[in-house]
Amino acid sequence: MTGMQKRVLIVDDEEDLTWTLARKLSKDQDKFQLITVNSGREAKEVLSQLPVDLVITDVRMPEVSGLELLEEIKNKYPQTKVVIMTAYGSTEMQRTANELGCFHYIEKPFEINELRELILDALKEKKGFKGNVSDFQLGDIIQLNCLGRITSALHVTTENETGIIYFHEGNIVHAETDRLEGENAFYYIMSWKGGEFSVKRNVRAPRETIHKGWQGLLLEGLRRLDESSESAVEEKERQRRERNEKMKAALEPILKSAGVEFVLVHTRAGFPITYLPDTEEGHMEAVDLGNHLSSFFTHVGELQRRMQTTGANFMELHFEDLTLIIIKVPESDAYISVVGEANTNIGFIRLELRRAVKTVKELV
Known about the structure:
Strand content: 15-25%
Structural class: alpha/beta
Helix content: 40-55%
Distance between the termini: 36 Å
CATH topology of the largest domain: Beta-Lactamase
CATH architecture of the largest domain: 2-Layer Sandwich
CATH class of the largest domain: Alpha Beta
Shape: elongated
Radius of gyration: 25 Å
Strand order of the largest sheet: 2-1-3-4-5
Order of helices and strands: EHEHEHEHEHHEEEHEHEEHEEEH
């Protein structure tokens, strides 16, 4: 490792998840050094001893929560970027994370490649904001120009458009895009999800079209962002429900097979993606199985390492009164698990699983 190599710290109390991420991201060891810990307390110890460029932390953890860790990092190590990940996302939590200075917010379950791209993007040495950077960061840039009583022109560029916000001694006096000017242009620029910016000092506005105070402009801009964000969350939730319904339709024939208690689609770390039926009676609930599977896959991984093999893609466990069948969804971190009675028609379930896994692969 060179002295200039970046450091990434992943914090999650799920040891199986941190182990999986460490293994999957090991191919990027030439780009960054990865450290994983399983508590906020351990994370604070690492941060006190080593400079860290990026912290990726779960929200719900004992002792020190992810939001508490985020707040401490922003106070003590302001140059360190923080990504919040959670399986219990909400608009309010995302807003709180953004206000505390979160670089990005990602919901579990997520694809490893999605997280990898996020890490590589966050570690790039770039001025301005790009990609998935929080909407509030542009607001921070505007606020710095206002508080510094600067006369300048802030150029903001996206893939297809360019906008300019002019400041005169800290007051926002003009804004323009290709099609708009004044307050409407300012709010439109605030709504852009990504791009690059540059500040040209001592550049005066060609005219004054904005007379409202900058605090009021920012508050109104953020209010409009909240409204659009809530709409996006609603649309994302609608798409998630639609995907789940399609998965459930593909898994329905398995559930109807005699003796089957429930079918669960989940990640390797045990996070439920969807399951049938919605109400369960039998040996256990689907969520409980997910928790047990997290430990189970840890032991399977250890067995694979000892046997110097990989890829447990199909497993059957037969107990005296219970059958558990697990199949991996190709090219993803997802699995389908079926719990049934000992006399379940195993042959039929195998056939149906191989059919259903093709549909699930396209949806997870």
